[in-house]
Structures are given as C-alpha cells and as structure tokens.
Design goal:
heterodimer; A: 315 residues; mainly alpha; MetI-like fold; 77% helix; B: disordered N terminus
Chain lengths: 315, 285
C-alpha cells in the first residue's frame, strides 16, 4: 500500500513537471501568442495588443499565468482552437478513443502473437531458430513502421484493390467495418514490436527453464505444457512486460504516423494537424494528453509487476 | 572457429569481432553507408536535385534506381540521402551524449540537489513518447535540418544521463577516488581520469544504438514534413513524397525504406556486438 501511494505521488509530480515543460515550450514560440491570434506581427496597434494581452491574462507574471492555466485545465477547459473555434477539451475527448483503440489492439496483437511464438521458439534449442529469432527481432527494431504501413497499402491495393477509407467509422456504429479499417494500421504498428517480443520471450523463457524448480516440475511428472505455461511462463513474463512497457512510448509515437498514413482522426492526427496549422491550443492539449496517457500506462505496467511478482511490492 | 596463429598478434577487439558475424555484418553495413555518404559527389551519377528525365520511371537503364515524381534520379537521391541521415544522426547523438552524459556524470558525482534536479528534469523529458516530444520541439523551433538535430538531441539526452549516472555513482564511493582526492587531485582530474573510463563503455554502446534510433526519428520527422525540407534529398522525405505516387510506381516507396532499414539495422547489429564485447555482464538476448 505504501508502495502504491509513493508511486501515485511520483506520477502526479511528473505530470506537474510535464505541464511546466509544455507551458514553457509554448511560451518559447517565436512571436507572442497575441501576434498569432491577430494574424501576424504588426497587424495590431499597441493599444489593441494591450487589450488582447489583458483579455487573455498575458500581462500577469508567468507563475500566475501558469497557475491559472493549470486551474482551468483541471476544470476541463483546455482553451479554444485558433482555427475552428471549437473547445479543445471536447476535441480531445472525441479523438482519444480512436488512438486508444489503435494502441490497445496493437498491444493485444503483439502479445497474442509474440508471446506464444516466443514460447515455441524457447522449446527448440537449435542454433538456426536462435539466429532467426535474433535477426527477426533486430529487424523489428530497424524497419520503420511507416515504411511497413506504406508497403502494406501498396500490397493491399494490388492484391485486393483495397485503399484506406476516407471516413473513419466508429466501432459502435459498424463494428465489422471498423475492424476492417483498423486491421492494416494495427498490423503495421504491431509487426515490429511483435518481433521484439518474440526475441525477449524466448530468451526470458530459456533462462527460467534452466532453473531447478522447473526440473522439479518435470520430475514430478507434469506434462511439458503444464510446466511451460503454469510454472515457467509466469516468471518469464516479467522481463517481457518490462519491454512491452518500454515500447509503449514507441507505440504511442508510432500512432502519430500511422494515423496520418491511414487517415484515422485520432490524437496523433490531431497533433500533426495542429502543428501544420500552427494551432497551438490544440498542440498543447494533445501533447499533454499524450503525456498523461504515457505516464498512466507506465504506472499500469508498474502495478502489473507487483501482481506478477509480489516481491517487488516490498522493495 | 579457427583462431589466428598465436605468433601474429591480433588486437583483442578484432578477434572478438571475428567471432561475432552479426556485429561484423553490422560494421560492414555502417562502413558502406559512411563511405557512400562521404563519396556521394563521386558516386552519384546525377545531380540529386536536377530534374532530368521522365518522372516515375521504374529502375533500369539509364537510371539504375528509376526516377522520382519530379524526374530526378532516384539512385543519386538515395546516395545523397545517406549524407543527411548520417549528418543529422551523428550530430543529434553528439548533442544527446554531450548534454545527457555530462549531466549524468555531474548528477552521480556531486549527488544531493544537483542529482535531484538533473534526474527529475530527465524524468519529465522521459514522460513523453520520443516522437511526440520531437514533434512538439520542432513545431516550436520550426522545421529545418538543424532544428531536427536539436530536437532529437534533447529527446535522447535523458537515456544518456541515466546510463552515465549509474557507473559514476558506483565509482564515486570507492576508496581509490578518496585516495586520489587525498593526493590533491582536482574534481576535473578525478572525473576525467577516474570516472570517465568507467562510464565510457556503456556510453559507447548507447551511442551506437542511439545512432539507429536518431536516424529513424529523422526519417519519421522528415516523412511528416517537419524535418528536412525539399528539394534536399532525405530518405524520410522521399518516402513521404512517394505516398502519392506509390500505386503508379511502387519502387519510389520501396527503395528509400530499404536504405533506412539497412542503415538502422547496421547500427543495431554493431551496437549489440559492442555490448557483448565491452560489457560481458549483459549478455545479448
């Protein structure tokens, strides 16, 4: 319990740090926000400038500005988009599910394919399997996922005359159409990661399989399947979960490009369009939401550890 | 494996490299890309930005790599693209190594509030997905080659800081440092002579591995239009342009991706090999 509280407090501290970082980054913008709002430098008279500055509270000292900014965000007010005039909070809420669906399906795909393949590979002691798994794992780290995405689109269009849909269909209106739409993006995101997970699972399983308690399990007459899945796997999974957790950053970054390529209007798509259109409230909001998602995921991974290995709780 | 005759003295690292074919392949790939980048003006058959032929020709004679959407020679652009990738990769990692390595060593050496502040700043930088942070920084600095370098440098600095801090912390408490201090050695001498040698091996491994991720990140940012700007030839940018024409001429989408994959794989293999060589405690998975 004390571990949980400490871990939770630390998460909050990091999030405060991130909000300061984003605040400072946005204030580093060339030209002030007033000029951007006014449609370019020199468009506003000094009086108009002062009026706008006062309206947005930009004449206050920076710490006051920061506290007011954080305060309004905690009340769910993320400001308004420069371009569409929409509230950014509502925009983010409508975009987050798409990104989450992409990420969750990818992690599920990676685990469902990567872990079983890794277990299978761990049973074989041949050098060829070892080399193959190592090379494929390194390829997974080396081949850019946006290239995989582009190749998949080419292949799908030649083989099935399929092209990325122009309109996103949410799962609650047409679940089947949505899954069809998500298949290639998820595949392009998951392929590289799955290769890494196969490699990690295999080496981790091999280490566990060499331990005494596994020999005992064999000796008392358990079937190979029971030894592998019930005794070895649980210990072997800990490093795999670590790697999956570390790769969440890669995954969330990959989402940005994947959404762009496949035209899925998620958080990454929103971030990029915000950047292209210099729509800073949108950029600020999406970056913060990415940070929150990432930090919360890391927290989740840590908690998963304590479930997998109770010893960690007492450290 | 046959060993070199004991009469001839081969350096230890060379022998280790010979026993590790994967690292050898990595070193060869990296070496080839470096040579291509250095000799680009000699190797490239054409000017990489000159529009000289019919657009979107498949590979063949006279354009070995075909031509791109503007009728530029694809092979020449690939060759010059190696320059951009390596240039951005090397300088970005140099920034990360300089900033991260220094603050990591400082944090471990001085401890106390220096350690606290440095590592908390790194924690915050770590709490954003690398590509998202890089996008945020380039969007504020503006898209250009230099800014991409700075952004990637900042993004990867925390990794170096963590890696440098550990061994520094471990060494600082040891008696021989105390002895050096008793002999009147300054902090500068202690860090350079006694701390740095302990930190350099893990930092070297991380540098090699980071070169691969930095090159990938540059390609990704250029792909998104936030990195290298046209008409400069960059692999990421070439892939991005290819998206509109890839169904007419798939080659322009295939070749730049291969170039990225080979280069990045080379650095990854080399990094793995170096880790085996320099840090036998961490075995390769």
């Amino acid at each position: 319990m004390r571990y949980l509280i400490r871990r939770g407090l630390w998460t909050v501290a990091v999030l405060v740090g991130v909000s300061v970082l984003v605040f400072v980054l946005v204030r580093l913008l060339p030209g002030t926000i007033v000029d951007i709002l006014g449609g370019g430098e020199g468009q506003l008279s000094p009086d108009q400038r002062a009026a706008v500055m006062q309206q947005f509270g930009l004449d206050r000292p920076l710490p006051v500005q920061y506290l007011r900014w954080v305060g309004s965000m905690l009340r769910g007010d993320f400001g308004w988009s420069f371009r569409s005039g929409q509230p950014v909070g509502g925009l983010l809420v409508s975009r987050l599910p798409i990104t989450l669906e992409l990420a969750v399906l990818s992690v599920a795909g990676v685990s469902l394919v990567g872990i079983p393949l890794g277990i299978v590979a761990s049973v074989s002691r041949s050098v060829r399997v070892k080399t193959l798994v190592q090379v494929v794992g390194l390829l997974g780290l080396s081949v850019p996922n946006f290239w995989i995405a582009v190749l998949l689109i080419i292949a799908a269009s030649y083989l099935f005359h399929w092209l990325p849909a122009l309109i996103y269909v949410p799962p609650w209106t047409h679940p089947w159409v949505n899954l069809q739409q998500m298949f290639l993006p998820v595949f392009s995101l998951a392929l590289g990661l799955a290769a890494v997970v196969v490699r990690m699972t295999r080496s981790s399983m091999l280490e566990v399989l060499g331990q005494e308690y596994v020999k005992v399990a064999h000796a008392k007459g358990l079937s190979t399947g029971a030894v592998l899945l019930r005794h070895a796997l649980r210990n072997a999974l800990i490093p795999v979960v670590t790697v999956l957790g570390l790769q969440m950053g890669y995954l969330l970054g990959g989402v940005v490009i994947t959404e762009q390529i496949f035209g899925l209007p998620g958080l990454g798509w929103t971030l990029l369009n915000g950047v292209y259109q210099r729509d800073y409230p949108v950029v600020q909001g999406t970056v913060l939401l990415f940070a929150v998602t990432f930090v919360v995921t890391n927290l989740g991974v840590d908690l998963l550890y304590t479930f997998l290995d109770p010893r960690i709780r007492y450290e | 494996m046959s060993e070199a005759p004991s009469g001839r003295r081969t350096p230890r690292w060379l022998r280790a490299l010979r026993r590790n074919p994967a690292a050898l392949i990595g070193a060869a790939a990296v070496g080839a890309v470096v040579c291509v980048a250095l000799a680009a003006p000699v190797l490239a058959p054409h000017d990489p930005v000159a529009q000289i032929a019919t657009p979107l020709r498949p590979p063949g004679h006279p354009h070995l790599g075909g031509t791109d959407e503007l009728g530029r020679d694809e092979l020449s652009r690939l060759i010059f693209g190696a320059r951009v990738s390596l240039y951005v990769g090397v300088l970005a990692v140099a920034i990360a190594l300089g900033v991260g390595g220094t603050s990591g060593i400082a944090a471990g050496f001085y401890g106390g509030w220096v350690d606290n502040i440095a590592m908390r700043v790194m924690d915050v930088l770590f709490s954003l997905p690398a590509l998202v942070l890089a996008i945020a920084i380039t969007s504020i600095l503006g898209p250009s080659l230099t800014n991409v370098m700075i952004a990637i440098g900042i993004v990867y600095a925390p990794t170096f800081a963590r890696i440098a801090r550990g061994p520094t912390l471990a060494v600082v408490g040891l008696p021989y440092i105390e002895a050096a201090r008793a002999l009147g050695a300054s902090n500068r001498i202690i860090v350079l002579r006694h701390v740095l040698p302990n930190v350099s091996a893990p930092l070297l491994v991380q540098t090699t591995v980071s070169l691969s991720t930095a090159i990938l990140t540059e390609a990704a940012l250029s792909f998104l239009g936030l990195g290298t700007q046209p008409p400069t030839a960059s692999w990421g940018l070439m892939l991005s342009a290819a998206r509109q024409y890839m169904l007419i001429d798939p080659w322009i989408a295939v070749l730049p991706g291969c170039a990225i994959a080979v280069t990045v794989l080379g650095f990854n293999l080399l990094g793995d090999g170096l880790r085996d060589l320099l840090d036998p405690r961490i075995r390769t998975l």
